[in-house]
Amino acid sequence: MRVLSLFDGISCGMVALKRIGISVEAYDAFEIDKYAITVSSRNHPEIVHHGNVFDGNFRKFKGYDLLLGGSPCTYWSIAKQGRETSCNGEGFKLFNEYVRALQESECRYFLYENNHSIHRNIKDEISKTLGVEPIVINSSLVSGQHRKRCYWTNIPHVTQPLDKGILLQDVLESGVSWQEKSYCVTASYQGAAFHNTMERKQRTMVAVPVATVNGKSHTIPATYYKAGTDLFPVYRAENSRQKIAVPIRIGQIGKGGQGQRIYSVRGKSVTMTANGGGMGAKTGLYKIDLPDGDYIIRKLTPVEAERLQTLPDNYTAGISNTQRYKCIGNGWTVDVIAHILGGLKNV
Q1: Which of 6, 73, 221, 274 has its CA 20 to 30 A from that of 285?
Q2: H or E element, residue 335
Q3: Is it true that domain 2-166+332-346 has CATH number 3.40.50.150?
């Protein structure tokens, strides 16, 4: 199969094709992010890179079998203040390059992806231009994260993937999660902070249990994150002789005032007070579904983020963690793409 890929990123399309056993004769990619190209080239040295889509002469690829692409949703995403809601902006200029590539290359099959949150006006125009309606698939069916995306394709017989039952806990290298599924991994995940996770329901973080001695937790050094999983023995409340019968503050925001404490929903409820109000209404701003105990709250590791996108472990190794998170967040959930491209095995 000969493949033309626009906005190729870290070549998740190639990973998907290899995963389902489709032989790739040629894979030509257009991408401008140097870190994404580094990852792609390290994993797939056979890929030929061509640079910016606006400079592409797609007639060179006439007769190719498959066109892949998902133009950046930067201008369309609901997360962007003042996002574009019509087809006259920068976002649609990028999409039109995909359309130009499809027309000039005359690829037999195409797959175009974008965020489910884009405005209905834009979705309708994409559908009109490509001649197909989008198939909405949530990556939660094949991975441990919620990631709802639209896929426009003329590949036949595409259905919803079977639910593999994968949870966030299943992909963790250490620690425990208080969510069944991760929020969507985005390009800005490097900036994850606990208050952001709890208040805005984004950039999932996880908890690492910390042992206690006579009811006191160990001192947590600033370099704890370098120690892997061996820094502290795991604390399990059910095995402790200390029976906890009061709310346990397992963390705090700001100065840790009463209205800023974090309580386990498995412990006793905080006493309501008549002067409740402020950030936490005197009852604790945040509640977490974890056993009573002491925890370090940490970001997902790059490997865990890769697993949420069903990439191989350390697929993005070789660049900084900041760039790894960005590349992973900008990528595709490989097993969703593999499921869709699987329809090509019978044509």
Answers
A1: 221
A2: helix 334-341
A3: yes
Q: What gap in Å lies between CA 176 and CA 297, rounded to an integer?
A: 10
123: enclosing H helix or E strand: helix 120-130
327 as an active site residue: the answer is no
The residue extents of the domains of the chain are 2-166+332-346, 205-299
* DSSP H or E run through 40: helix 34-43
Contact by Cβ (8 Å): 91, 50: no
Q: Read off the pTM.
A: 0.81
Q: Of 73, 87, 150, 327, which residue is the catalytic one?
A: 73
> Could you tell me if 40 and 51 are in contact, meaning their C-beta atoms sit under 8 angstroms apart?
no
Asked whether 333 and 147 are in contact (CB, 8 A), the reply is yes
Q: Give the tens place of pLDDT for each residue, 261-277.
A: 555 545 444 433 333 33
What Rg do the C-alpha atoms of the chain give, in angstroms? 23
* Residue labelled with tokens 């998902």: 70
| Tens digits of residue pLDDT in 74-130 | 888 777 778 888 888 888 899 999 999 999 999 999 999 999 999 999 999 999 999
